[in-house]
Design brief:
disordered N terminus; 377 residues; alpha/beta; 49% helix; 3 domains; disordered C terminus; 7 strands
Length: 377
């Protein structure tokens, strides 16, 4: 032991011949006492740790408090479900989904507009061809089935795929980005008969009908473009045979038709019908148009949510560690008619009383451990 070692050291430093016996015994007792005190101090924490009052540490077990925040989110989802009307289903407002729907409508409108332009130009050119072709002539003998393929050599000056490159993310405090997804999922679970569109995640990409509908429009554009190319070719032949003002008029019509062909080629190519994902405006437009059709005339729920879990770990030299958990939630939401009229709004907050967890493994209570199990109400 330390005491015996120190005592022997003291006795060795002062031999019996140097000191009287009582003085030697006093020094030995002092050395033993000092050694025992040092041994006790070595077993105790440093005085700066202040063990008796205990210390509060908020960084340990940081994620544990989110359990209570999770339970609060589910509780609030139930309250919102009760407030939602039953006469109409509700879609969750998401900025990315809304912008996607608007962009998809622009793509659809652009396809229709280019189709109308091609149809009008075809009609004008056909009238010119009929007017300058002798009855029974062979100017229209060129089969209209020729040149119906759309070349992919030109790129649109303004790539339509940029309409879908929108960076939108929900930010949360403490719980992070998962708070919004958690709350929306809890809503859909609590009242699936009232919630239809979640605005994120899977949005019906496997539904082939919207894509087939848009693709049919694109094929119609390709056919109209091919017909226009044929008529431009016929006009150029008539222009070569014409003279004077007729020649100028036919040349101008052929030039306008050729310019529209280039514009149509660039537009069709920018749709990228043979690709999927973010790079294909056609694919994205079909995705969002399908979602828009499913959520048409529904109510729109817009909300903000802050979830925070509070974790307190108390360390005490004599009582050990004690863990307390609590949750805080702030929710404010607005319910709109499709035309933008406000139908319902509210702001609520919840804070749970701290629950103490025995770190040795004893249960806090059955509800704490099993209340968040998958499949439980």
């Amino acid at each position: 032991m330390i005491t015996s070692w120190l005592a022997s050291g003291v006795l060795h430093a002062h031999s019996p011949t140097d000191l009287p016996t009582p003085q030697r015994e006093a020094q030995t007792r002092a050395a033993i006492a000092e050694a025992e005190r040092a041994e006790l101090l070595a077993r105790l924490p440093p005085a700066t740790s202040k063990p008796l009052p205990g210390t509060v540490e908020l960084h340990q077990f940081g994620a544990a408090g989110l359990v209570k925040a999770f339970d609060l989110a589910r509780q609030l989802a139930g309250e919102v479900c009760t407030a939602l009307p039953a006469d109409k289903k509700t879609a969750i407002y998401e900025t990315a989904a809304t912008q996607g729907i608007l962009a998809a409508r622009l793509v659809q409108d652009s396809i229709d507009r280019v189709g109308d332009d091609l149809g009008k130009q075809n009609k004008i050119l056909q009238q010119a061809i009929d007017a300058h072709t002798p009855q029974g002539g062979k100017a229209g003998a060129l089969a209209l089935s020729v040149l119906t393929a759309v070349p992919a050599t030109l790129r649109a000056a303004a790539d339509l795929s940029s309409l879908f490159k929108t960076d939108v993310g929900a930010e949360g405090l403490a719980y992070g980005e998962g708070a919004r997804s958690l709350f929306v999922t809890a809503l859909a679970r609590q009242c699936p008969d009232k919630i239809a569109g979640l605005g994120a995640g899977y949005m019906g990409e496997l539904d082939i009908k919207p894509y087939d509908s848009l693709l049919a429009k694109v094929r119609n554009l390709a056919a109209q473009r091919g017909e226009l190319a044929n008529r431009v070719a016929l006009l150029q032949r008539l222009t070569d045979a014409a003279k004077g003002e007729d020649k100028k008029e036919l040349a101008a019509l052929a030039a306008s038709g050729g310019a529209l062909i280039k514009s149509a080629d660039a537009f069709i190519d920018s749709l990228r019908a043979g690709e999927t994902g973010e790079r294909s405006p056609l694919f994205n437009a079909a995705r969002y148009l399908g979602y828009a059709a499913r959520t048409r005339d529904m109510l729109v729920l817009d909300f903000d949510l802050r979830l925070e879990g509070m974790t307190i770990v108390k360390d005490n030299l004599f009582t050990g560690q004690r863990l307390r958990l609590a949750g805080v939630a702030f929710l404010w939401y607005r319910l709109y008619e499709p035309n933008g009229n406000l139908r319902l709004a509210d702001a609520v907050r919840r804070m749970t009383a701290p629950v103490e967890v025995d770190l040795r493994g004893a249960a806090v209570g059955g509800e704490f451990w099993s209340g968040a199990e998958l499949g439980r109400k």
